[in-house]
UniProtKB/TrEMBL annotation:
Domain TACO1/YebC-like N-terminal: 3-74
Tree of life domain: Bacteria
GO biological process, one term: regulation of DNA-templated transcription
Main location, first listed in the record: cytoplasm
Locations listed in the record: Cytoplasm
Family annotation (HAMAP family): Transcrip_reg_TACO1 (MF_00693), Transcrip_reg_TACO1_YeeN (MF_00918)
Protein name: Probable transcriptional regulatory protein BN1080_00628
Entry keywords, A to Z: Cytoplasm, DNA-binding, Transcription, Transcription regulation
Pfam families documented for this protein: TACO1_YebC_N (PF20772), Transcrip_reg (PF01709)
Species the sequence originates in: Planococcus massiliensis
SUPFAM superfamilies on file: YebC-like (SSF75625)
Length: 238
């Protein structure tokens, strides 16, 4: 599928290495997931997914515990989950998922981040149809053949299995996230380089150098927004 998940993650981690921004985003997401259901990941699947993601980004336990305790404490703080879709240079496509306590502010900020960097916001559905909601796992220490055999023995169907550098990347239907996760854990695989529910572009776009620089500047501006949780796009990263 060509997504180079390890490279994407390394780039994001490098960008966030000297800031607490990624922890703040996870803290908000964990709080919302815990608030919407039970604050126990064993009975709250949405929270379980977020915590698995947080683990792959080495989010400190204190951040996680604080967010869950905040939800348990009955905080009245509330957030809306909103998705924005838009276009960047050369017809590139972008999906922006947000958690916000001020819808007007977030819409204005996202629109400005697009507009000031050569892009524009689209209407709902203008981009999302070109992406597939997908569960993605990355594991180390096993070959493609070993992973395939493991999943076949567990009677788990997946979309694709791809070797990438030192990892094997597994793509599955989103409703199979926990099934795949448990299949790995049943044979002792508990650490993942990637454990995400994502929006995967059906086709990737390669941009010329100048457009690539403009696109990355736009994505940086969007990701820097306080209310933005996830950004998905169809551009092949170089």
């Amino acid at each position: 599928m060509g997504r180079k998940w390890n490279n994407i993650k390394e780039k994001k981690a490098s960008k966030d290495a000297n800031t607490s921004r990624i922890y703040a985003k996870f803290g908000r997401e964990i709080y919302v997931a815990a608030k919407q259901g039970e604050p126990d990941p064993e009975s709250n699947q949405a929270l379980k997914v977020v915590l698995e993601r947080a683990k792959t980004y080495s989010v400190p336990r204190a951040i996680i515990d604080r967010a869950i305790e905040k939800a348990k404490g009955g905080s009245e703080e509330s957030y809306d989950e909103l998705r924005y879709e838009g276009f960047g240079p050369n017809g590139s496509m972008v999906i922006v998922d947000t958690l916000t306590n001020n819808v007007n502010r977030t819409a204005s900020d996202v629109r400005a981040a697009f507009g000031k960097n050569g892009g524009n916001m689209g209407v709902s559905g203008s981009v999302a149809y070109m992406f597939d909601h997908t569960a993605v796992f990355g594991i180390e220490g096993k070959t493609e053949e070993e992973v395939l055999e493991l999943l076949m023995e567990a009677d788990v169907d997946v979309r694709d299995i791809v070797a990438e550098e030192d990892s094997v990347i597994v793509y599955a239907e989103p409703d199979q996230f926990h099934v795949v996760q448990e299949a790995f854990k049943s044979v002792g695989v508990t650490e993942f380089t990637v454990a995400e529910l994502t929006m995967l572009a059906q086709n990737e776009l390669e941009l010329p150098e100048e457009a690539q620089a403009q696109f990355e500047k736009m994505i940086d501006a969007i990701e820097d927004l306080e209310d933005v949780q996830q950004v998905y796009h169809n551009v092949e990263l170089k």
